[in-house]
Amino acid sequence: MKRSHLKTLMLLCAGLLLMCCSDSHTNYPDDYVGFDKTYINYTYNSSAKEDVIHLKVIAVDKKKEDRKVRLSVNMPPVGGDSFQLCEKEVIIKAGKKEANATVKVFPGKVVKGVYIHVTCTPQWKNAETTKTTIQLTPK
Questions:
Q1: What pTM value is reported for the model?
Q2: Domain range for residue 63?
Q3: CATH code of the domain in which 132 resides
Q4: Fewer Cβ atoms within 10 A, N terminus or C terminus of the chain?
């Protein structure tokens, strides 16, 4: 009798351990493709001529085909010339879960209080658009 209880307890513990280690309990939806962060507070060197912000576009699952996403920036009415999105399109290669994009910042042109809003739009049906906001803060 005690052995059957011990075996049952061991099976239960093993099952719980497997559930805890499972990758399916992430903070993202199942088919998520978008930015890894929704908000970035970026501190730039105000005496530099140019600075670079690296953005990571992630996918929850690996796929057998390349996935193309389009990036765009909402230009503010003031201070729009203080940054530039370097890639308009990013491809997450087959078998990979991430790709990188860059934003150039020109500290001499940054106006106080400027936020950069970058939008990621996957190029397939029924995909959701994601956004990230970058707050520029001088050192």
A1: 0.75
A2: 27-138
A3: 2.60.40.1740
A4: N
Between strands 67-74 and 89-92, the pairing is: antiparallel
Tokens 């389009």 identify what position?
70
Angle, CA of 37, 123 and 26, to the nearest 5°: 35
| d(C-alpha 59, C-alpha 21), whole Å | 19
Please state, in angstroms and rounded to a whole number, the distance separating the CA atoms of residues 41 and 106.
Answer: 16
Q: State the total domains in the chain.
A: 1
Whether the pLDDT of residue 73 is over 80: the answer is yes
Contact criterion met (CB below 8 Å) for 51 and 107: yes
Q: What does the pLDDT average to over 45-70?
A: 92
